[in-house]
Amino acid sequence: xxxxxMEMHEYRKIIYRLQQGESARSIAKQGFAGxxxxxxxxxxxxxxxxxxxxxxxxxxxxxxxxxxxxxxxQQTSKVQPYADLVDxxxxxxxxxxxxxxxxxxxxxxxxxxxxxxxxxxxxKDSQPKELTVPLHFSPGQAAQVxxxxxxxxxxxRTGQEEKTWFFIMTLCWSRxxxxxxxxxxxxxxxxxxxxxxxxxxxxVVKKVIIDNPKCAITRAxxxxxEVQRSxxxxxxxxGFIISACAxxxxxxxxxxxxxxxxxxxxxxxxxxxNSLQDANKQLKLWVxxxxxQRTHGSTFEKPLTRFSETEQSQLKPxxxxxxxxxVYQKVTVYKNCHVRYQKCYYSAPHKLYNEALWLKxxxxxxxxxxxxxxxAIHPRLFKPGExxxxxxxxxxxxxxxxxxxxxxxLDESKRIGEHTAKVVQLLLNDPVKDLLRAAQGIxxxxxxxGKIRLDAAxxxxxxxxxxxxxxxxxxxxxxxxxxxxxxxxxxxxxxSVYQGKGIYQRSQNDIVH
Length: 513
What we know:
This protein has 513 residues and is an alpha+beta fold. It is 42% helix and 15% strand. The strands form five sheets. A five-stranded mixed β-sheet has the order 5-4-1-6-9, sandwiched between helices.
């Protein structure tokens, strides 16, 4: 008993029994203290007159003046000569082991590690403590949102094993949960999870308390946090307030922090998941059957009961029409007159090269805006590398090149003449080389030399087996298209054609073979 520190109320009980005439042996048998201790207490009590029948029992404060242990004078710590240095290191959160080693190495410190550890603890104990107060919410007032690391799971959509995270939304008053396993933490997933949660609860809270994830807050700040444009518009559509915690202060959303730990410790252990999709099915059942039916450690009620009986009726109703989720992102027009979004490409007017545009992406469409005006609308693409191009967005030279494809060349060559059509067909059917530009160039010669001369030049080139752009142009430049290939039928045909067009007349004798 001598080794145990007795409380003042225990001294008072023993004095009371001694005053009532009980013996030290009897009191000791009741387990209050040992006989030696009781006899010592009896001697002190007799000297102070506390055992007199009419004496008033001393209160605990009076007993403390007599029996409270006196503090012995503490020895000066060997760390004291280095107090200023050590105090500063403790403020910088340097570990005691590092401080001890540094003092030994650089200051010839002879004390033990324990002496440093005791001093460091004393400094920490003397520092003001960061105290907290519980936050109280009314039904439907707020929800807290957070991510938590999940297991690696097979995803049926991608056919691969993927890293996962828990998205958790906790209603602050009832503690009812929405939980979903996801494979990305981007803004699109963030918004979809919010929408799924509101439909799960069949209502919307007045305020959503979040940390500062990049998918929601573009710049964290104690006073003026910048909210991602997509999230801000989503909040307006559903009618809730975004409440971002101060940077590095997650205690403001302690309810969802606790929910993350609870999900990891209660849902994950000893479960088998065939896939990500299977895990999410099990999650929904677990939230309703286990998490919702437990007696919560803070409310001492079942979350699902509190939700269904009280909080659900206090939620704001869902919008009559489900808002379309839209993601906004700033993009720049590249030299190829396209912007890039999620590894897909969308054309923009070529005059906006190097300009910053706003891109709005929904589940089905992508719209580009320049200075608040819509400048392009495309169907949404999903396969990496896919490209949506509108010809009117391209510069004139590129537009002309793309418009003058093989079909255009064939149609134009037929309008020029039979021989031109044969030449173009030969070029486009070359088994080794891509001669589309050559075909385009030959057709373009008609604008300078006329269709009749071009067709005659093509006829001469075909005859000599030289149906290529350079030869045909050379024939036209040198005027060889006027020369008959043979005296006879071909000359007569060309001559009649020229005369009929009123170009000029030549005699057969003028022909140079």
